[in-house]
Write a structure and sequence with these properties.
With about 140 residues, this protein is an all-alpha fold. About 85% of the residues lie in helices and about 0% in strands.
């Protein structure tokens, strides 16, 4: 039993370390206040998507089970339908969250670091909501 369990436990430990190493780096390099902002900014979108996907999977499991007993074609059809539904929800939400992040990042950076920051000083040089003039210049290029 240990021959099987020890590698599985080691792999799980390694996965947890890899999945949470960003928190260690942010906390060590930037401090506890920045770590708080980082963890909230990471968890809010994740909670939104994860909770909806959890509800979807709870509803979809009996449907998949029924489709599997009906045959391979019915199972494939139900899986494709589920993929379409998840994509129809997940993609627009992901794009919306990215647009919110791009438009609000300069203001969060300013409040997190307590420095004056020009709203057009985005990491990519583009504030999609507040700086339409710059967006127009990019389109003309």
């Amino acid at each position: 039993m240990l021959r099987f369990g020890a590698p599985v436990a080691a792999l799980q430990l390694l996965a947890e370390l890899a999945g949470n190493s960003d928190y260690l780096v942010v906390g060590h390099k930037l401090g506890s206040e920045a770590l708080g902002f980082y963890s909230i900014a990471y968890r809010l979108p994740e909670l939104l998507l994860s909770n909806v996907y959890w509800i979807f999977s709870s509803v979809a499991f009996p449907i998949f089970s029924k489709a599997r007993t009906a045959g391979g074609a019915a199972f494939r059809g139900s899986m494709l339908k589920a993929l379409r539904l998840i994509t129809m929800f997940g993609f627009p939400v992901g794009v919306g969250l990215a647009l919110v992040w791009f438009s609000a990042t300069p203001y969060w950076c300013c409040s997190a670091s307590r420095r004056e920051l020009d709203p057009s000083q985005h990491p990519d040089g583009l504030n999609l909501v507040g700086d339409r003039h710059r967006l127009g210049r990019l389109r003309q290029r």
